[in-house]
Amino acid sequence: KGKEKMPNLDSVKVAVRVRPFNQREKDAGSQCVISMNSNCTTICDPRNPENRKSFTFDIAYWSHSGFIKNADGKFIPGGLGSRYADQMKVFNDLGQGVLDNAWQGYNATLLAYGQTGSGKSYSMIGYGANRGIIPIVCEELFRVINNNQDKNKQYQQVSFSMLEIYNEQVKMLISKQCAPSSLKICVDVFLFLFFGGGKYLKGETEGISKLVTSPATRPMPRTDRLNSPSDSTSMYLAQFFYKIFLEENITKQSSINMVDLAGSERQKVSGSEGDRLREGTAVNLSLTTLGNVISSLAEVAVRKRVLHIPYRDSVLTKLLQSALGGNSRTIMMAALSPADICYEETLSTLRYAERAKKIKNKAVVNKSPTEKLIKELKAENAKLLSKLARLGSSGQLHRLLAENELQIQAIQVFWEQHLEEARREWEQQYAAIAQERRLMQMFPYLLNVNEDPQLSGVIKHFIQDGESEVGQSGTTLNAITLKGLGILDKHATFTNTENKVTIEPHGRAKVIVNGVSAVTKTQLRHLDRIILGSSNTYIYIGFPNERNNEDLSRFDYDFFQSELAAAEGINMDKLDPPPPGYHTPPPNVLAMFHDYIKVMPLVAEANQMSEEPFKQDLKFELQVKNLALSDSKGHDLEKEIAVKVTNRTNNLVWVWSKAKFINRKFLMEELYQRYMEGKDVSVDRVSDPFWDPVEAVHLGSAHVWLQSLAYCIKLEEQVEFLNSESNEEAMLQINLVPCSRAGEPFGEDDIMIDPSELLGNRLDFQIQINQCLGLKWLKQVRERGVQIGYRVYNCPNTFYMQPVWGNVNPKLHHVMHFTVLNVSQEFLSYLLTNALVVDLWGLQEGCTEMDCSFQDVRFTEEGSVIIDETKVLLSNNTVIETNENQLSELYLKLSKLEKEMELLRDVNRALREDNTILKGMLKKPDTEAPEVICSVMKRPPPPLGPKCWEDKQVCLQWSSDYDAEFAKALKAFYQSMNSVRGQLVRLRRHRPTKDEGNLQTLELFMEEQAQMLKDFGEQLEVCVNKLKNDVATIVKKKRDSLGCIKP
């Protein structure tokens, strides 16, 4: 035998495609962060435009702009200069390449990867007139077969199968008779798919194309599953097999795999930060393992040593083993979202695709001499039969021949039955479609809405005349049967009489119409939005005479969730009002609001699972972390989505991050799936997704401004602890006391008029926390405790007080002495512009208390804490801006006040120079005094005489007291300004109530806002005028004291 030809090493071909903005991104004014130049794709960080990253791939498709819609409804390039890549352009490059490889006898694979909503399904399946790669491949495949004129070629046995992988189970989308649990992955994967439920059709181009795009064969949004297919680890798989018979009696066989992978964001969630149960969720396993396989193969490609490639760790990677590093020519298409709010996920997709292009496959032509061997065996069989006829009867030979004939007949019957079953299912599906079209012209109906636009509109529930019950088990003729969380046996009743349709919930059934819960009979109107249970979302399509060919695409899944959020008082203006002159919120707020409406249905499902079937008695509440909290400069903290979990039985509370909650939600889904299958759902505490160790909870923060320390003025404050929603949690009595090394408080004589005099000198001060009043955390449950902590400047430690338990108004008696050995300009700026942020933590029975030790802290000989050693200050130049015109005017007043303060400092500096000169007079002879004083007063000296100077000592004593009077005026001003600053903070955090749709409530809010603005303006005016009057009085007194000397 000659040497076999070595297989070629083929790199995975990688293409990227960027989609247009969706409606939500258009409404939000999103910016495009993707640019393409030839095969180079560049992404720009919206928070730092200078940060740009570029990637080079085999093909880059610009489908973001430059297109028009023709009369057939297809999107095509808008002109000769347009670079828009339409569906046919993508097919000609990718789909045709898949077919070309298949004709040659190679296995071919096309993978679509990207986050949910990035356009994967649009490219693979298409939408409406814009058909995707898979239906066009079907059409081209059968077109070539039907138009074959080469007598030396014969095409046979073209089979087709569609699979979905969810939770490590394979579901056959075409065959309804195969349960997911009954399909197993065999060693010969393609043989499994061939026998497991494929449709065996020859030359039926229209049939296959319609089957691919038919709602009946999509990964359906099943109501017994909690999340949508695109949002979980589900996948869409289409495979084709065909054989080519050549005159050399050689068989070539090819397998085409086209895979629409799950949303890539699931990979990120599977590594949920800080969660003890972050590993092992079956929902994430396939996509996570695929990422591990690609990373391992990429390392192999650069000649790194890899001990193991985890193909067998998941169902998906078992199926794709030949496509990744095996016998296949593979193409990956990465779908990109262009919006700035999707920056992180888009960047992750680009990096993923960059690793994939390093993979090397070993593709060979799949050919075998099977047909030649079969002909030889048939000839041999014919010779044996002729010999048998000549030899006469032979019992053993006849028996063997009879058995062979029976086996052949059994195989023929099996395939005939299989084909007949496929044809019957085909006929049933199209009969159902025809029946559905007739009903659409007769009755109103409910049309499903799914997070994946490709899965919206595939389910219709018709509301026929009379009453139609909705529930888990329908008993009436027109019953609508629904499954899933929150659906009761008898959930609601639709009534269709006199061209009117109403819905009436039963008992505690959850029914939401247009974002508002319905508790009584409610009449429905065309295009109303309905949510039944936790997550069954529908648009109500009215009677045929009410329809006007409306565009239903605007009523997408986000529209439903935004409507729910608005009903709860959550919108983008509340999360972060845009600055004056801006009409759209910044990208980080858009992304956060998008996260909020995405997590809302998950929280509803978690609550339902907690009640039924697991009886956990937990309450999940969606929150916006840091909604009304600010940093030490008063700038708003970055807002995050969090979920508050409360145990109703023992009142324990947890706060989970978004990533942790989603990871736990997947684990809950796995338990729920086992429950639906009748399996045991008992788990130990360590593996229980509903359980977590008890932890401390952040209740709120208080701000104490440090400006008084820069003037060595003692500050006695009573400030509020405000939670993330700007509600008061407690009151805190705190003092900031400048002091000596020994801790003795400074008096009024030690007040600094100019803070710059502190530079280079030592500064000591104490933080005294006396009492906390009205702790709501303990009012709710007396067995709880609290602990207070704060950080000062760049000190590495957070200073925590000793915990207090069971006392609503605890006296704390906390004193901490701090020392700055050498005041720097950075530290002085910190005092003038920052606040001390004091955090209030809630303790629960069984939780770990905060560490009160002083590790990595240096002390002076006197025992005070040393700060400002490194002279490092984190600066933030963000300017506080709000969207109210009145507040903008008040900021102008504050700016004007700062300028006036600077002028007052100049006046005070001149007065201090005068005082220094006048004090020097005490040491000079009386004859020199007039010249000195007159040089200060800028006037000619008076004539000498003892009468003019007999009151000299009294005048000098007056001038020496001016510094103390000016210091008192400053002290009074800063104390009053602290209350003004607190009023400003309350004004900025003042928000309307959740019932903002009520006109009366809005009027009340506007009245409160106007009164608060008026009070703030009056209080600010009083403070400024008092300071002006005090300074004017001091200057007048000083001049009058010097008026005793007259020329």
UniProtKB/TrEMBL annotation:
GO biological processes: microtubule-based movement
Question: Where in or outside the cell is it found?
Answer: Mitochondrion membrane
Positions annotated to bind ATP? 114-121
Q: Which InterPro entries match?
A: FHA_dom, Kinesin-like_KIF1-typ, Kinesin_motor_CS, Kinesin_motor_dom, Kinesin_motor_dom_sf, P-loop_NTPase, SMAD_FHA_dom_sf
Q: What positions belong to coiled-coil segments?
A: 374-436, 880-914
Which Gene3D superfamilies does the annotation name? Answer: 2.60.200.20, Kinesin motor domain
Per UniProt, what is the membrane topology?
A: Peripheral membrane protein
GO CC terms: mitochondrial membrane
The Kinesin motor domain covers which part of the protein?
11-359
Q: Which key words are in the record?
A: ATP-binding, Coiled coil, Membrane, Mitochondrion, Motor protein, Nucleotide-binding, Transport
Q: Name one GO molecular function term.
A: ATP binding
Keyword set includes Protease: no
Query: Which Pfam families does this UniProt record tie to the protein?
Result: FHA, KIF1B, Kinesin
Q: What does this protein do?
A: Microtubule-dependent motor protein required for mitochondrion morphology and transport of mitochondria in neuronal cells.
The record's comment on protein family reads:
Belongs to the TRAFAC class myosin-kinesin ATPase superfamily. Kinesin family.
Protein name in UniProt: Kinesin-like protein 6
Q: Which organism is it from?
A: Latimeria chalumnae (Coelacanth)
Gene name as annotated: KIF28
